[in-house]
Design brief:
Helix 1 runs antiparallel to helix 2. 7% of the residues are buried. It contains two helices and no strands. The protein is mostly helical and 59 residues long.
């Protein structure tokens, strides 16, 4: 995982994080190792935060 992935204060869009999630699944061939599962969980949390931020910004 890259050093800044899931870093607090990340300003990546939900689309960017979603693309990284998709790439992770493709790389993993549909089955995540324990380390990939950790990365996935961090990405999902970051994606959810980005979605919330985009909703608030749109309001």
């Amino acid at each position: 995982m890259s050093p800044d992935s899931g870093a607090p204060g990340s300003v990546r869009s939900a689309a960017e994080v979603n693309e990284q999630i998709r790439a992770l699944w493709l790389r993993a061939g549909g089955t995540l190792s324990a380390q990939e599962r950790e990365e996935y969980e961090l990405l999902v949390v970051e994606w959810a935060a980005a979605v919330r931020g985009e909703i608030i910004e749109a309001a």
